[in-house]
Design a protein that fits this description.
The chain is an all-alpha fold and 481 residues long. 78% of the residues lie in helices and 0% in strands. Helix 16 packs parallel to helix 20. The two termini are 43 Å apart.
Length: 481
């Protein structure tokens, strides 16, 4: 799903869609080409590990029917995830917005799929195959809708010429008249024929939107103001936080969605203690709270990596790098602003929910949970530092985000799996300071000493990446001057 998120939104962000249409490509051809590329790559990801998975046959214990059912389910999940990410990409104009929406959708679907992990072994084969076929049929419903939207967009680009809206008359009666005419035009455009708005109606609608600025720019919540005050001493960090929070609020208003969730510190603390009391009475429930905490921390980690990937890349795309290099801000202030902003923006969504779940997991042991909370915070810092370092060296947001998520996956998952006693032997320093603590964290072991070593290693990595960011920035500034 995350892989498919930038497929169409990247073309819209670059402004390349009109060029494709003027070159003679229809919206249907564009959508089909993008979808075939995504589906083929997903097929490669599913087929590539099959030779390794086939080793289960010589070892015994797995029948051919089990093997076929598991692979059919993997194919269905891959195709349906690509289709959902493709639909998200078609509905967003920026890559960052598509990435954030895809991460949120993946997290919600992951919560819904958790019960299937416990029930999969007891489900009959016909139900597994029905589920796999149903998932594989999702693209046949999603892709035609995306094709219809792009066909409509192509027709609109061909029949309408751009026109600058008229913002001269902004009186209240005229604005009401504009809104009524725009509403009627939009109602007519909702038919099956997808009749495009004329240039006059589009200009009136944009004028009415300008008049309704108060509605389109809702005031920040108290928590938003508090986040902005945290970085009030750094103008660059405050600007980044303000712009992103305002963009999120506007997108929710324009899409008629619910406002961003707001939690009270006192209520969150009380809810966390209530969950901890329930966990003390029913110990398996405490394990559930801890599992939800780790899933939320993983979602926050991915969101921070995606936000950090936009740090310097967004400034480069807006041609602001030279202005920042010549500004009065020191290199330390600039790098620290880009490092702190993704952490605060992610805290807007995840700080209080993770606080509630963390307090609810204290029934498993205060020290056991405290070190894991510290490790989760250190992982978020590593994701922000890594994303900013890559955004200084690379140009495209999609490449930066893919490289950041790929590096985190290799560090946190691939290395502990590869360096096993039966496969490869790792160096002693790597085993002690990285691999063994990660296995304890992934397997929820009871020993806390290795996790303290992991926390120290994560802090050292984050500081090293921040130092690399400072060196890269100073070198680029010296070359500019």
């Amino acid at each position: 799903m995350i892989l498919a998120a930038p497929s169409l939104s990247l073309e819209r962000e670059r402004g390349a869609l009109p060029d494709y249409i003027l070159a003679g490509l229809s919206g249907r051809q564009i959508v089909r080409a993008k979808w075939m590329s995504l589906a083929s790559f997903a097929a490669v990801l599913v087929v590539a590990p099959l030779p390794i998975a086939a080793l289960c046959f010589p070892l015994g214990g797995v029948s051919g029917w089990d093997f076929a059912s598991a692979n059919a389910l993997c194919i269905g999940v891959a195709l349906s995830s690509c289709a959902l990410g493709f639909s998200i990409s078609a509905s967003h104009k920026t890559v960052s917005g598509a990435y954030v929406a895809a991460v949120g959708a993946a997290f919600k679907l992951g919560l819904l799929a958790c019960p299937l992990l416990f029930l999969a072994s007891s489900l009959p084969f016909w139900l597994l195959w029905s589920l796999a076929i149903g998932l594989a049929l999702i693209p046949f419903r999603v892709v035609p809708r995306v094709q219809e939207e792009f066909e409509w967009l192509a027709t609109r680009l061909e029949t309408e010429a751009p026109r600058t809206p008229d913002y001269e008359d902004r009186s209240t009666p005229f604005a009401r008249l504009q809104l009524e005419r725009a509403a009627s035009a939009l109602a007519e455009a909702e038919g099956q024929t997808r009749a495009p708005l004329s240039a006059d109606e589009l200009a009136l609608w944009m004028n009415a939107a300008q008049v309704e600025r108060g509605r389109l720019d809702p005031p920040p919540s108290e928590f938003d103001v508090q986040l902005e005050q945290v970085v009030a001493q750094n103008p660059l960090a405050r600007r980044d936080v303000q712009l992103q929070l305002r963009a999120w609020r506007r997108s929710l208003v324009l899409s008629d969605s619910d406002p961003m969730p707001h939690f009270s510190p006192l209520a969150s603390f009380g809810a966390g203690l209530a969950l901890a009391f329930i966990g003390c009475l029913v110990p398996p429930v405490a394990v559930l709270w801890a599992s939800l905490f780790f899933m939320g921390a993983l979602a926050a980690l991915v969101q921070i990596a995606l936000l950090a990937a936009n740090g310097f890349a967004r400034e480069r795309r807006a041609h602001m790098i030279t202005q920042l290099q010549l500004s009065a801000l020191s290199p330390l202030e600039i790098v620290s602003a880009k490092f702190v902003a993704p952490l605060l923006l992610s805290a807007r969504f995840w700080a209080y929910p993770l606080l509630i779940l963390g307090l609810g997991s204290l029934a498993l042991g205060p020290l056991w949970m405290a070190i894991r909370i510290l490790v989760a915070l250190a992982l978020c810092q590593l994701a922000s530092a890594l994303g900013n370092a890559l955004s200084l060296r690379l140009r495209h947001v999609t490449v930066i985000a893919s490289a950041s998520l790929g590096t985190l996956s290799i560090l946190l998952v691939v290395l502990p799996v590869i360096f096993q006693p039966l496969l490869f032997h790792a160096p002693d320093w790597l085993e002690v300071w990285w691999l063994a603590p990660l296995r304890v964290l992934l397997l929820s072991g009871g020993d806390s000493l290795p996790l303290w070593r992991l926390f120290a290693s994560l802090q050292a990595l984050s500081l090293s990446l921040l130092g690399a960011c400072l060196r890269f920035w100073k070198r680029a500034r010296d070359e500019t001057r």
